[in-house]
User: Fold this.
Amino acid sequence: MKLFSNPDLSESTKLKDITDKELPAVDVFAAVIQFFRESLQKRLNTRNLEDFTYDDVYWVITVPAIWDLKAKQFMRRAAEKAGLKDSQLSLALEPEAASLYCRKIPVEINTQKDGAKQIASLPEGAKYLVLDLGGGTIDITAHEVMADAGLRELHQASGGYYGGTCVNDEIMSFFKRLFGAPVLMRLKEENPGDYLDLMNDIEMKKCTYSPKMDKNNITLRLPVTLLDAYKEETECQIEECLQDTAFADDVQIKRDKMMISKKLFGSFFKSSVDNVVRIIKEILDTPSMSEVTTFLAVGGYAESALIKETLQTTFPEKKIVIPTDPSLSVLKGAVIYGFEPEIIASRVCKYTYGIAKQGIWKEGDPESKKLPEKTRKGLHWCDGVFDKHVEVGQVVKLGEFQEAKEYFAVEGQVKALLDFYASTEKNPRFVDDPGCTCVGNLVLDLSGGKTKKKILVRIGVGGTELEVEAMDPTGHVFRSNCNFLP
Assistant:
């Protein structure tokens, strides 16, 4: 979640463990990736595989579709630190990976002309929502099955921090109000094993909870060390103090068992579930989404009984498909993506992207933007113009570059640095307009060109990552790279 929620993400960003110890986030991610790399190498070394080496391995790392360019580059840096070659790595968007897997699973039973029944997968032309309901984030997007069995995106990914861990956060907020933050911190620091056991019990009860369940209470096992810590901190038994809290009518504690009413336990889901439903409705309200008939729900949170029931009751006219082991759908789809990366034929741009440049000051522009310098025609220049390359909501094809735009360098300049911006608006005028954010810069190596005055820059956003190409009017291509991490 740190990669999604931190607008100042950098290679120095820190992560905390449950005891509040810190490490650079990039090192944590790199260590995880390195573990998988070394595990694979060990397995390959134990087998006599002729004409196969580790260099033949291609890696696919999945990331949430709502991650920005900065977070994606962060993941590449972590993979590089873990020893993966850039040429042997692709980033796949998680809802797309899940969609690739789910498009081949049975979703309905068709009746053939002879009356026979046939199990069928999504047919050509089928339009559906992919609900990637993970632990931290939820990613929701829309796809259509094409004639060649490929997929095209119909709506840019939407989502946020509304996944299963949001429910855990609500439950832990309840625990803090009941036991006190110092008591829980002491449990984490002095008895981390007991703390993790409590988290695992909460996770299990969370997945099986349903308003329709026969039981009136949900029972959690409390670590004895938690009860002891509470008694030492307050000089009171939790059973006695409970009666003086706001939870007296909904919570009972007997020895190491806590019984929570269905009403209170269900309230822990409210914020998460309400946001999932809200985002789905916002997407379906888009005119082009009227033909969506099916929801594919994947991710660990899709296993929640409450999520299933909510989708079925809120959208009764839609077909809800949840594959077996929905938490593995992204993993299995990533394998397919590694072999068929071109199968996602087009995507919908999530932001308007552009480059800061000088332009002509126009009537109505702020006076503060007007520069004293004038053009040959006597028009004033202005600074910080948003030079748009691609527009939010625009359909972009895989491997296709947008129209090249002109930029100018000083004679003799060896390198050029162009500030790259993203906006939630379709037509921003200036790079400091509301909704605009500087997401990084493009570094162009101008050495070797025949002219340094004019540079043609074009970008490609049809893949999972941004591509940049720069050239001079003679066609000489400059080396360029994108830097989104400070």
In short: The first strand starts at residue 14 and ends at 16.
